[in-house]
Amino acid sequence: MLPLLVRFVLGPLVRALYRPDIRGVENIPATGPVLLAPNHRAALDTGVITFTAMRPVKFLGKAEYFTGSGLRGKMMAGFLGGLGYVPVERGNAQAGLAALEAARKVLDAGGAFAIYPEGTRSLDGRLHRGHTGVAALALATGAKVVPVALSGTEGLQPEGKRIPRRAKITVTYGEPLDFSRYEGQDSSPAIRRSVTDEIMYAILELSGQEYVDSYHKRPDQSAA
């Protein structure tokens, strides 16, 4: 019931309240496996995708969010599941593989899955080099990739604010990218890099951000 509540009740309510400018949503295939590849501007980007894609979309979520005790824990787990989060363990050597496997299960079942190629939020507003996980998934499953540009989401919840406020948000869904020409080459690092770069260029064209050809690092991370 919760996914239906999110899609048909909470979704329209959120769109009416925040009035995002949604463009190109018809580019998302109505059926079949599809990967959404958005830029990442703010913590609430996942919610924005959930409420504007007009199709159920799955995301990765930390497993500990789903393991709370008592009624509150169960309600939180149910709500996150309704939003489309798929629990995965993090913080160990197998975390990356587990995340890709969880995503692949969704795509193999004909679902829609969203992954942020940059891997983390952009703290400087620029678009950073993409990690190749998105390419690995597209090549392994045959899913088409829809590039997504988010703009203004960083203004939804300024630092120190608990309740999202209205902000001018634009969500642009680009035309699907088909990488079937690389069928059978999903194990090639060079092909994965090429596909990822093509996806990032499509996001860049939609977002108009400045591009940085290096992975984004948090301020407390080393430059290694």
From TrEMBL:
Source domain of life: Bacteria
Boundaries of every Phospholipid/glycerol acyltransferase domain copy: 34-153
GO terms of molecular function: acyltransferase activity
SUPFAM superfamilies (UniProt xref): Glycerol-3-phosphate (1)-acyltransferase
CDD domains on file: LPLAT_AGPAT-like
InterPro entries per the UniProt record, alphabetical: Plipid/glycerol_acylTrfase
Keywords: Acyltransferase, Transferase
Protein name: Lysophospholipid acyltransferase family protein
